[in-house]
Amino acid sequence: MRPGLWRRPGLWRRPAPAVLMAAWGGNHYSPLLLLYREVDGYSAVEVNAFFAFYVLGLVPGFLFAGPLADRYGRRRLVVAALLLGIAGSVVLAAGSATVAWMCAGRLISGVSVAMAMVAGTSWIKELSQHDAGPSARARRASLTLTAGFGLGAGVSGVLAQWGPAPTVLPYVLQIGLSLAALPSLLRAPETRPGPAGQPDQAGQPDQAGQPRSWWADLGVPPAGRRRFWLVVVPLAPWVFAAPSLAFVVAPALVADRISAARIGFAALLAVLTLCTGAGVQPFVPWIGRVTRGRAAVAGLGAVAAGCAVLAVDARVQSPVLAVADTVLFGAGYGVCIVCGLVEVQAMAAPAGLAGLTGVYYSLTYIGFTVPVILAGLAHHTSYATLLAALAVLSATCAGVVATGLRARPAPA
Question: Taking phi first (over 0 means left), then psi (-120 to 50 degrees means alpha), and beta for anything else, what does residue 41 get?
Fold first, then answer.
C-alpha cells in the first residue's frame, strides 16, 4: 500500500462491519437466556455460569488485546476476533444442550468481543483522524459497537421467539454475516507499526525502536492520571450497567405480565435501549455545549433517573413503564460510552491507544455484573430498595465526575 494511503477519508468503514459482527456475536446471546431455560431446562445457576465464562474471556481479552494490537497491528487482532466469533457461534449452536459446550462457546465469544472492541475501535479512531474531530472519532467507534450489540440482540430475539430452530438459526445467521464482513476487513489499511523497527502502512518507522512493555502499554500517562481516576473510573461501569438493567433486570421484573412473549419482550427492550443509545450519540457534542462540558454528568444523571424509575417498576410491575425506562437507560449508555472513549483517546499516547482502551473497556464491563449482584442481594431485601440504592450510587458518581471534569484534560 502506498505511504499515506490510509489517511484517505472513509477508510474506517472497511473494518467497521467486522467490529459490528463481533459485537453482534457477543450480545445476540442475551435474549436467548430465557429460551435456554425453557427449551434445555437450564437452571438460573447454570445460565449465570454461562455469563461468568463470557466475562472470563472478556477481561483477559481486554488486557492482552491492547498491548498485542499496539505491538503487532490492528488488522491481525480484528481478523482473529472475527474468526474466534465464528468459532464461538459454531460451538454454541452445536452444543446448546451441554453445559460444558455452552461455557466453552461463551468463553470464546468473550475473547472475540474483547479483541474486536479494543483493536477495532482503536483502528476506527486512527482511520478517522484525518477527516473527523475527537468526538466524531469516538462516536464512529461507539456507534459501530452499539449497532452490533443492538442488531444481535434484536434479530436473534425475533428468531428465537418466532423462527425455526431457535437454538441454531441465530448463530448460523451471525456466522454467515461474519464471513461476508471478512473481505472488507482484509482490504482495510494497517495504522500501527509491526514488530519493533518495522514501518507501518504509512511508511512511518516505529519511533521507539523497541516494543513497549505490557505494563507500560496499559498505563495511564502521568498528565491524565487525576482525570482518569476522577472521570473515567466512576463513569465506566455505568456504561454497561445501564443496558444490563434495561434488558436483563427489567424484563425479569415484569415476566409474570408478559409470560406469552417473554423472549420477544426482552429482545424489544434490548433493541429500544441500544437504538436510543445509538440515536443520542450524535448529539453528545451538543449536550456538552449545553452543559458546559459536563455531558458525562448528564449521562450519569439519566442512568440515575432510570434506576429510580425501575425501582418504582419493581413494585408496580408495568411492562409499559419498563419500555419507557429504556429511553433513560439508553440515553445514559449512549452519552457515557462516547464521553469515556473521548477521555481515554485524549489522554492515551499514540503507541498505547489500544492498551488504554482495553483498560477502559475492562472497567465498563463491570456494569454487566450488576444483575448478578442484585439477584444475590435480593434474598435479603427487595429489588425496589436495591434499585433505589443504585440510583443514589450513580448520582454520587455523577458528582465525582463533575469534580474530575474541572481537571485539565490530557493533551490529545
Answer: left
In this predicted structure, the answer to whether residue 211 has a pLDDT above a threshold of 80 is no
Residues 343 and 362 sit within 8 Å (Cβ to Cβ): no
Question: What residue has cell string 512511518?
Answer: 204
Residue 194 backbone class (left: φ over 0; alpha: ψ -120 to 50; beta: rest): beta
Residue pair 153/32 in contact (Cβ under 8 Å)? The answer is no
Q: How do residues 336-365 score in pLDDT, each as one tens digit?
A: 999 999 999 888 887 778 888 889 989 998
* Long-range contacts, stretch 33-42, CB < 8 angstroms, 24+ apart: 33/248, 33/266, 34/262, 34/263, 34/266, 35/160, 35/166, 35/167, 35/263, 36/96, 36/102, 36/167, 39/166, 39/167, 40/96, 40/97, 40/167, 42/99
- The packing angle between helices 262-280 and 237-244, to 10°, is 140
Instruction: Flag whether pLDDT at 215 surpasses 70.
Output: no
Q: How far apart are CA 16 and CA 143, in angstroms?
A: 10
Q: Dihedral, CA atoms, 362, 394, 330, 169, nearest 10 degrees?
A: 50
What cell was used for 72?
Answer: 503487532
How many residues are given for the chain?
Answer: 412
Residue 376: other Cβ atoms inside 10 A: 10
- The Cα 174–Cα 247 span in angstroms is 21
Residue-level pLDDT at 203? 35
Which ranges of 95-133 would DSSP assign to H, the alpha helix?
99-115, 121-127
Which residues lie closer than 8 Å to 66 by C-beta, 6 or more apart? 118, 119, 122, 217, 218, 352, 354, 355, 356, 357, 358, 359
∠ Cα 213 219 222 (to 5°): 125
113 close to 61: Cβ distance less than 8 angstroms: yes
* Least-confidence region, from 374-378, 389-393, 400-404: 374-378
Residue of 333, 115, 150 lying closest to 235 (CA atoms): 333
Confidence grade of residue 46 (pLDDT, cut at 50, 70, 90): confident
> Rounded to an integer, what distance in angstroms lies between the CA atom of residue 218 and that of residue 221?
10
Cell of 406: 474541572
For residue 21, give the nearest of 135, 161, 170, 193 by alpha carbon: 170
